[in-house]
Amino acid sequence: MTAPKKTPVSGPAAEFGARLRGIREHRGWSLETAAEKCGVHFTYLGRAERGVQGVRLETIVKIAYGFQIDPAVLITGIQPDPM
Prior knowledge:
Layout: H1 11-27, H2 31-38, H3 42-50, H4 57-67, H5 71-75
Helix pairs in contact: 1-3, 2-3, 2-4
């Protein structure tokens, strides 16, 4: 029996994760390779990509550094969930 799928914690988390996955896949990196470059565990990065893990600002910067991109690439234009 498989575990039920977790839903994204928020719209912004899902959008952040989609951007992150897109960049990783564009570079041809496995989840493990990307996580190693970013200094985070691959399960954490996978949860972030699926939007089921909220990501702190410090970790966004760490991930961007590992990807050698400006952190703004990961967050610019993401809109908050409606109130």
